[in-house]
Amino acid sequence: MPMIGTQMSTKITPRSEDFSQWYHDVISAAKLADYSPVKGCMVIRPNGYAIWERIQRELDARIKATGARNAYFPLFIPESFLKKEAEHVEGFAPECAVVTHAGGKLLEEPLVVRPTSETIINSMFAKWIQSYRDLPMMVNQWANVVRWEMRTRLFLRTTEFLWQEGHTCHSTAEEAELETRTMLQVYRKFSEDILAMPVDIGRKSDAERFAGALRTYCIEAMMQDKKALQAGTSHNLSTKFAEAFETKFLDKDSVSRHVHQTSWGVSTRLIGGVIMTHSDDKGLVLPPTLAFSHGVVIPILGKAETRERVLKAGADIVARLQEDPRAKTLGYPLQVSMDADETKQPGWKYFEYEATGNCIRIEVGPRDLDAGKLMIVRRDLGVKEAIPMESLPDVFFGMLTQMQSDLTRKAEEFKKEHTYTVASYEELKERIEQGGFFVAAWDQDPAIEQKIKQETKATIRCLPLTASYELTPHDGPALISGKTGPGVVKAIFARSY
Amino acid sequence: MPMIGTQMSTKITPRSEDFSQWYHDVISAAKLADYSPVKGCMVIRPNGYAIWERIQRELDARIKATGARNAYFPLFIPESFLKKEAEHVEGFAPECAVVTHAGGKLLEEPLVVRPTSETIINSMFAKWIQSYRDLPMMVNQWANVVRWEMRTRLFLRTTEFLWQEGHTCHSTAEEAELETRTMLQVYRKFSEDILAMPVDIGRKSDAERFAGALRTYCIEAMMQDKKALQAGTSHNLSTKFAEAFETKFLDKDSVSRHVHQTSWGVSTRLIGGVIMTHSDDKGLVLPPTLAFSHGVVIPILGKAETRERVLKAGADIVARLQEDPRAKTLGYPLQVSMDADETKQPGWKYFEYEATGNCIRIEVGPRDLDAGKLMIVRRDLGVKEAIPMESLPDVFFGMLTQMQSDLTRKAEEFKKEHTYTVASYEELKERIEQGGFFVAAWDQDPAIEQKIKQETKATIRCLPLTASYELTPHDGPALISGKTGPGVVKAIFARSY
Predict the structure, then answer these.
(1) B8-22, B59-73, B99-113: lowest mean pLDDT where?
(2) Residue-level pLDDT at B1
(3) Domain assignment of residue B413, yes or no
(4) Cβ contacts of B41 on chain A, cutoff 8 Å
(5) Residue A88 domain flag
(6) Does A74 contact B42 at a Cβ distance shorter than 8 Å?
(7) Fewer Cβ atoms within 10 A, N terminus or C terminus of chain B?
(8) pLDDT tens-digit readout, B302-317
(9) Residue of A nearest to B134 (CA)
């Protein structure tokens, strides 16, 4: 299938003009996703799915390295299961899609299309777990889930989305808490290493906690419009679901106890995060770790007599890069190709490969060949450089490494630059409009959190943690209440997706 | 997570006693899958999912090598879409699960949970395809699908199952037919190379054709009870769905034409096929290409003073095998481990690793160490051999290769041995009870096919093909009608899953 196709790329609205429109234009120009005829459901197109496959491959290995194994649980959940954990049903019932008919008949009990799988998985855990020797039990599933959404946005909030959800059972509360934190750190490191997307980590306030969890940890990234994106969550479920489903084990002392559980997940929303972290007004920018095109050779064919020579040089370049020993040590599969389509002008191709997130463009024409040179352009910098032909592999592989670290550093600096400390609610209200993360003192009163949300549209993205995962004490005075002393903690406020 | 767990393995009913019970016992003992609380839906447990991951990894690479790219389309299909292709809706409507409520409201139009995705994908193809230059367009998706089934059986027939479905568009009928055949051959070769499951290939009769296809090709495997298993299908859809969805392209001559399409798929049913092809009365047997445990070292710990020595020798064996350069050239990721759990007896472990399909067992005890020897057992042969310690890597890697080819050959011979030529309907009726594939002459009359099905429960599994993919002429006389001459073709009759 032609990677580019004949559809003219969408004109991309500049970020400064309309960030939200820019986001959709980039997705459209890079052919990442499309709305489907089903309200709120998206189609992930091959370019977008290639990013998801990279995410899956990388994260799956990291999840398995923690000891979890993949499994698959049913799409459908009996409605009664959802109701067994009170907070859980309250949180999810309003978003559920319900199958009432099947095989031409009305079902005795309606089936909910899974919005998350704690309940159905617990019904199996309860069957599989008997003894402390069965623990820890750690499973993960890559699956689709459905949450009926009123306002949707490609990748960020869609009725159906793809994700992984890990579910673990432990014999003690300490082990479950440790697992919750381990996965939080796996997500943080994955986000930095693979997505080049630095994040703040912390605990959610009770208002933002997963419905049914004791405690939710999260990673929060800052988009280029300075809004926050919740990029992953890790929940300590304590024994709440175990109690609802009687998931018990016979402990070493022959006492039957409920298991302590965790669940954790990231979704296709990460693709939206990557787009809004790195892309620019020319289109998609991807870190090399996620790219589906690392290098493209654009031959400038010139006259008929030079045509073959240029094409041969282009093919040689592709082969040289693919066969270079460094291609095997990148940690991701190198994708290099030549676009020799003669029905398109080189200039048209430049725009297209910029829009679709190719990392490095190599131009080769007859005059370059005569001079023993090549032109090379790194996507994120956009600066054309002439380099000697023989230095290409060194320059190319050096550029990939540099691009990866530059994108990470740039995103880190951006987040740092737009993270502010505010001393009072007045200051927060005044500055919230300009965007950013606002570190402030909060007295843990949900009413104050709610008031701030209503008045500023900013929510507590996370409560930063000490080295021992406690909430971080703040000298205060706390926003609005003016309280000081124990219980006043650091909180990061921001508007979010 | 402990690979084995504390659940006592199910006693396995011998195949000769009750094949169907044996099948379920093997799945249970090997912890491959479990029934879920949702009628007809299964849970694929980590051991079973590990096989699916191997299948996905291998087949995905082969699919991509043909030029298709992965994408993802919505789970839900508007009911009206299904109705656009008359044969299609007739075939699938009775099996559909229908979402009527979502987000707390009655939906304006019910949504069908996809039983297959031709319709929803065509609605996108119609949008994406404009010109001949957009063709061929080739996408594949790995997804869950739902078909409401009355009688279910783990892996073979479940309400929800996992599969891949490829969908391609071409500018000519010839190209579409070529693609259909290409994928048939990809499936055949994949089945032989990776599943060690030889298949017969052919065309389906009209009665067995995919609802909405012009022509369906299939691969059919023979299980150990001599019943057939349809293991994969490849459909030439011609322009049927393109006409229903107005999927058109502007051709080189500036005429607007409907695209010619194909679709093709295999599912988690393949896991059932693998189980029923290779396993035995001791449990699961897997070809090394699919195994999630290639070697397990069982230390015979003996007295306290020899304990450390034996454990060290076991760990050395694992390291030696993992680090052997041959481990990298197997084409699959080598999984070798030691089971040093002292709460279990070696004998218990032997049974467990046999039941769960480990390929090669290595026993090491203090007396073996003194004699510089090891005991080694290949799962499918079950014969214990003493070998010199230093020859282990050679023996081990040799065994893996040999086991793969032996399993393939054994399955091939079994299929050959139980494939019979029958000259008359009387002969078929007489012999059908003993099982097997029956090659006979058929005059292509659907009424005769139907009569045979009713009276013998045997269906036409496939119509064998000539080198040019034509139906194979048979001298006749045809079953029942006694016809001879043109139109009388070879057909393979069998009872099937």
Answers:
(1) B8-22
(2) 46
(3) no
(4) 74-76
(5) yes
(6) yes
(7) N
(8) 888 889 999 999 999 9
(9) A5
Judged by CB atoms closer than 8 Å, whether chains meet at B75 and A102 is answered as: no
Say whether residue B61 is in contact with chain A using an 8 A CB cutoff. no
- Percentage, residues of chain B above pLDDT 90: 93
> What are the residue ranges in chain A where pLDDT is below 50?
1-4
A397 and A471 assigned to the same domain: no
What ipTM score was computed for the predicted complex, to two decimals? 0.96
The reply to whether A319 touches chain B by the CB within 8 Å rule is no
Cβ contacts of residue A350 below 8 Å, gap of 6+? A298, A361
Which residue in B76, B175, B292 has the most chain A C-beta atoms within 10 A of its own C-beta, making it the best mutation to test that interface?
A: B76
The reply to whether A220 and A349 lie within a common domain is: no
B1:A137 CB<8 A: yes
Tell me if chain A has a CB within 8 Å of the CB of B486: no
Q: Are residues A264 and A358 in the same domain?
A: no
B278, B311, B339 - which closes a domain: B278
Joined tokens for residue B303: 């007295």
A149 and A76 belong to one structural domain: yes
Q: Using the Cα atoms of residue A193, residue A199, residue A203 and residue A208 in order, give the sign of their dihedral.
A: negative
Contact yes or no for A139 and B68 at CB 8 A: no
CATH number at residue A388: 3.40.50.800
Q: Indicate the number of domains in chain A.
A: 3
Say if CB A162 and CB A265 are below 8 A apart. Answer: no
Residue with tokens 């490609």: A154
Any domain includes A170: yes
Q: How far apart are the CA of A76 and the nearest CA of chain B, in angstroms?
A: 7
Range of the domain at B459: 419-494
Q: How far apart are CA A427 and CA A421, in angstroms?
A: 9
Contact B134 A5 (CB under 8 A): yes
Last-in-domain residue among B252, B278, B304: B278
Query: Taking CB atoms and an 8 Å cutoff, what residues of chain A touch B122?
Result: none
Report the residue of chain B nearest A140, measured CA to CA. Answer: B46
pLDDT digits (tens, 9 = 90+) for A280-337: 999 999 999 999 999 999 999 888 888 999 999 999 999 999 999 999 999 999 999 9
β-bridge pairing B97-102 and B105-113:
antiparallel
Q: Are residues A111 and A51 in the same domain?
A: yes
Q: Find chain A residues with C-beta within 8 A of B38's C-beta.
A: 74, 76-78, 111, 120
Alpha helices in A324-465 (DSSP H): 346-355, 366-370, 392-417, 425-431, 446-456
Nearest to A97 by CA among B25, B99, B304: B99
With a CB-CB cutoff of 8 Å, which residues 142-161 of chain A face chain B? 143-144, 146, 148, 150, 160
CB contacts, 8 Å: B160 with chain A? 74-76
CA A72/CA A282 separation, integer angstroms: 40
The string of pLDDT tens digits covering residues B55-89 is 999 999 999 999 999 999 999 999 999 999 888 88
Residue A480, domain CATH: 3.30.110.30
Is residue B355 domain-shared with residue B462, that is, in the same domain? no
A-chain residues near B95 (CB < 8 A): 103
Whole-prediction pTM value? Answer: 0.96
From the list A43, A93, A103, the residue facing B73 with the nearest CB is A43
Are B86 and B165 part of one and the same domain? yes
* Residue found by looking up tokens 């175990």 in the block: A242
Which residue in chain B has the smallest CA separation from A46? B71
A43 and B71 in contact by Cβ < 8 A? Answer: yes
- Same domain, yes or no, for A353 and A255? no
For residue A134, is it within any domain?
A: yes
Domain CATH number, residue B90: 3.30.930.10
Q: Give the whole-angstrom CA distance, residue A192 versus residue A198.
A: 5
Beta strands in B87-246 (DSSP E): 97-102, 105-113, 137-146, 160-170, 199-203, 215-222, 228-238
Mean of per-residue pLDDT scores for chain A: 96
